[in-house]
Specification:
The structure is a single chain. It is built from 5 helices and 5 strands. By secondary structure, it is α/β, with parallel strands linked by helices. It has a single domain, classed as Dehydroquinase, class II (Rossmann fold, 3-Layer(aba) Sandwich). The chain has a 5-stranded parallel beta sheet, with helices on both faces. The protein is globular. It comes from Rhodoplanes roseus. Its EC number is 4.2.1.10. One of its GO terms (molecular function) is 3-dehydroquinate dehydratase activity. It is an enzyme of class 4 (lyase).
Length: about 150
C-alpha cells in the first residue's frame, strides 16, 4: 500500500475556475485534483483529496490524517488561514508534516491575508505559484518521507 498524502481544501475552492479568475486562474478544483494525483503517482504516493466550506470538516480531516499515519498533508485552508485557531491547533496536534499552499501570493494581497495561523505550525509554505504549488508541496512531502526513512 502506498503512503498517502491528504490534500485538504477550504472554503470557496470549489468555485475555482469561475471565482475571480484574474486572481485564481481558470483551473477548476477537478484540474487541481488531477494535478495532485499525477504528482502523487510520480512520487509513489496515494492522494486523499477533499474540499469543504466548513471549518470543522477540515479539522476532522487533519486529525484523520494523523490517526491514519499519513505521509503528509497539503493544506489550502483558504480564508480560514487568517482566522482559525482551531486549524492551527489541529495542525500542531498531528505528527504529520503539513505544507500550507495558496494559489495566490497572500503576502501581496490585503493586509489581513498576510497573517497565517496555519504557518505557525506548518512545516513549509508555498504561495503565489497557482495550482502548481500543490504539485510542489507533494514533491516536498515525498522528499521529507525519503529523509525520514
Amino acid at each position: 500500500m502506498k503512503p498517502t498524502v491528504y490534500v485538504i481544501n477550504g472554503p470557496n475552492l470549489n468555485l475555482l475556475g469561475t471565482r475571480e479568475p484574474e486572481k485564481y486562474g481558470r483551473a477548476t478544483l477537478a484540474d487541481v485534483e488531477a494535478l495532485c494525483r499525477e504528482a502523487g503517482d510520480r512520487h509513489g504516493l496515494g492522494i486523499e483529496f477533499r474540499q469543504s466550506n466548513h471549518e470543522g470538516d477540515l479539522v476532522s480531516w487533519i486529525q484523520e490524517a494523523g490517526q491514519r499515519g499519513a505521509a503528509g498533508i497539503v493544506l489550502n485552508a483558504a480564508a480560514y488561514t487568517h482566522t482559525s485557531v482551531a486549524l492551527l491547533d489541529a495542525v500542531a496536534a498531528v505528527a504529520v508534516p503539513v505544507i500550507e499552499v495558496h494559489i495566490t501570493n497572500i503576502h501581496a494581497r490585503e493586509p489581513f491575508r498576510r497573517t497565517s495561523y496555519v504557518s505557525q505550525a506548518a512545516k513549509g509554505v508555498i504561495c503565489g505559484l497557482g495550482p502548481q504549488g500543490y504539485g510542489l508541496a507533494i514533491a516536498g512531502l515525498a522528499g521529507l518521507a525519503v529523509e525520514g526513512s
